Amino acid sequence: MSLTPPVREEYELPLAPLPGLTLERQFSLPRRIWQQGWIRKGVILLLLALIWEAIGRWQNNDLLLPTFDQTAQAFVEGLASGELVNKTWLSLQVLLKAYLLGIAAAFVLTTLAVSTQFGRDLLGTLTSMLNPLPAIALLPIALLWFGLGEGSLIFVLVHSVLWALAVNTYAGFLGVSDTLRMAGRNYGLRGLSFVLQVLVPAALPSILAGLRIGWAFAWRTLIAAELVFGATSGKGGLGWYIFQNRNELYTDKVFAGLAMVIIIGLLVENLVFNTLERVTVKKWGMQR
To answer: What is the dihedral of CA 49, 55, 59, 65, to 10 degrees?
Structure first.
């Protein structure tokens, strides 16, 4: 008796196209325009500006709340005179130096942490101690150690960047799969080459999140620290511009300085971090 199952004869059924069915969805022009992200964000900003203008006119007190139109005029005048641009450039120079130093320090700590037990203990202890400590609270010590100058600002800004980036980077390294780790070791990668060629690309979404958080912390800390520097030495960048105009009761210029802080944040977020995500983790299919 044969146990071989019967073989079914193959055949193909041709499918007729469905009448009246269009394969492409046609969207109206307004809907296609609304699909653009920058259009939607622009509408949100416009609504906020209109609400600001309405509240300012209803308040009718320029000292407490200038209107959006008055703030825009002060902003344009600050750009035209060059004062607002110069103050912003001074702040960004200090921020960039501290940001790069914080990135380098975080990379050293996390590389040591994934390589040795002592590094893991060191990173865990330091983050538990220093991460909850507000950076601005270190400013009095920084003034004693480095004096009134750029060194004190860089010290507190590195503290702002370092721990947020180190925690996110180390969490990303721990999330790398064992398959990728074994593949890297099979290629003979060890130490720094293993971190750069395996761990960093695999943990890039977490690293970018840490860079975003570190940037936000550093930018806020810089403005707050410059306000203190303005009160003590009369020097500083954008924070000093805000502090000085507050003392002179130029509230429209104070809001113009705050608007510059917001604009810089929006530009960095959309032109730098979103571009990095688009050409790396989103392009590689690591993030939706």
So the answer is: -40
